[in-house]
# Entry
Amino acid sequence: MAEVCDDLLLAYPPVGASKLRRLMSLPNTVRLTVALDSVESAEQLEREAAEAGRSVGVLVEIDVGLHRVGVQSLEGMLKLVRRVADHSFLEYRGIAFYPGHIRGGATVQDDVAQLGADLQVAIRALDKADLHPAVVSGGSTPTVWQSHLLEGLTEIRPGTYVYNDRTTVQAGACDWDDCALTVLATVVSIAVPGQAVIDAGSKALGREPPLDGDGFGVLIDQPEVTVVRLSEEHGILNLGTSRWRPRVGETVRILPNHGCIVVHAHEKIYGVRDGRVETSWPVTARGRRRLQVGTRL
Amino acid sequence: MAEVCDDLLLAYPPVGASKLRRLMSLPNTVRLTVALDSVESAEQLEREAAEAGRSVGVLVEIDVGLHRVGVQSLEGMLKLVRRVADHSFLEYRGIAFYPGHIRGGATVQDDVAQLGADLQVAIRALDKADLHPAVVSGGSTPTVWQSHLLEGLTEIRPGTYVYNDRTTVQAGACDWDDCALTVLATVVSIAVPGQAVIDAGSKALGREPPLDGDGFGVLIDQPEVTVVRLSEEHGILNLGTSRWRPRVGETVRILPNHGCIVVHAHEKIYGVRDGRVETSWPVTARGRRRLQVGTRL
# Structure
């Protein structure tokens, strides 16, 4: 039963004892790999891995332009890789990156070419230091169809592409017909002229801005109509440029700007084919953070 | 057992058979009242109430300036009230409004005075037509401490005031010390100079804009630091104007811009007193909408 049968990449630094212990409590048949960018998180991980008596793979995360996380220089990368390789229970496996700064548009070819060149520099620096990265893990939805242009890449981690959304379309990475996820809403008020109100607000759609144009989502069957304003439980459809006039009780399907946020806001997803519900999937890994109410200390 | 022991006001039009049937399935000991603004929703409600053989109270919602829902004129109000009063299973109880356009600031006194005057005009028009509103239901968190200035008001429905948030402070309706709800987050990366990254992003904080200043939340213990940028699972703290430099692993408490969105994003709320967790509450009524994945029809 000790045979490794699953690979788990945690492309997010697990920091803090409770998270690390949960990670270590996974069955030994799971081969763990963690992406991280700091000595502190490497040392925390080493301690917990030693305690659990298991080896954990590490990818050192590098910043390729999003400026969110990731080591900032070749020297920083080499230094952290050496620190990781020195630890007994950590196994250096390679590097990770997330090119979230590439959102499509006119510069996408140049941006991908620059990314490819930067990756080559990093890989060569590692090779030269005898620290060859067996894994080069990257990718995003807007760049998913350009992955073959990134020499040395061994793994991609796109997310949104499973369903696609309005942003993926606007980034040029898919067509409208490739979008699978919609929010089904009901018109609840048409009292105010020029608009209709649906029962999906920011708690259902999020308040993610579009790449182009306005609104927090678009009606997939009336693409000239957007959700132009949001309250928590109300979405305001702008009918200004449309001849469509819905009745109270009519249902509409909204293509959200950002599907990931929308999935996280719902308990269940219904799988529909030819207008019929064929299946439903619970969204299990959501809302698992710590929210506090208390006296100000 | 037929004694009425609970009052339920649904300040949102229940539209569509499935919602109406769930509403009607509540025990008969619950006295139901529904706010609505259209003939269509009144007729749907009447049909389902007749089917269920129970009487449902109705408040006619009027628009007092938010331009979201609500009848638009005195004539519209009187007409809908008469339609409601004509139905056998609907019982006209009064009017409802939501003054969400009043967000605080310099004009709040004038705005509340105008609202009070508008309400008087509506109440007098109803009285003159022999349709006295037994209930005048309104209120919001930013106006909660001005409720006594609204003559004829019988009921208030503020929400955010339970916990308060950064917006309530910025609206002048509470002080920093009145804010009870914070998101506990951990610093996971300090690789990029001038910022720190926490494990709370838009899925935890929402992307609600502040009334003043920048950011999607503020550190309650370092009020010069805001969450200036968000990804789904990453919050970027701007350290530019602060001398505070966190370590990886340090925890921070974030006062969110809009607490309601944050509650909806979490499964559980922990009640903390003097640094100790005393209780926890599940957030049960969340994520209950219909999300669809399917072929485009």
